[in-house]
Design brief:
4 helices, elongated, mainly alpha
């Protein structure tokens, strides 16, 4: 099976190295979230409006739907498997 990778309709193999490195990046890491609201995880202490960031990553709808989710006192979603949620009886 042959795979093809493209961005904006242009195959990566056809791009110059400089163009690829300006378009594609990989940053390997273990994702970490604070045991807090999604909003506070995005803000990371900043007070400015996060709406532009949510629009950029097409996350507005999901955040709006999260208003329906039950949040526990420590900020975790009831069915979330984050270790800090284990502290809630």
């Amino acid at each position: 099976m042959e795979s093809r990778e493209s961005f904006a309709g242009k195959e990566l193999k056809d791009m110059k190295a400089e163009e690829r490195t300006g378009t594609v990046g990989y940053m390997g890491h273990d994702p970490e979230l604070f045991c807090d609201s999604i909003e506070n995880n995005i803000r990371m202490g900043d007070k400015k409006d996060i709406t532009p960031y949510l629009r950029t990553v097409c996350f507005e709808k999901e955040v709006d739907e999260m208003d329906q989710v039950l949040w526990l006192e420590n900020g975790c979603v009831q069915d979330h498997q984050h270790p800090c949620c284990d502290l809630v009886p």
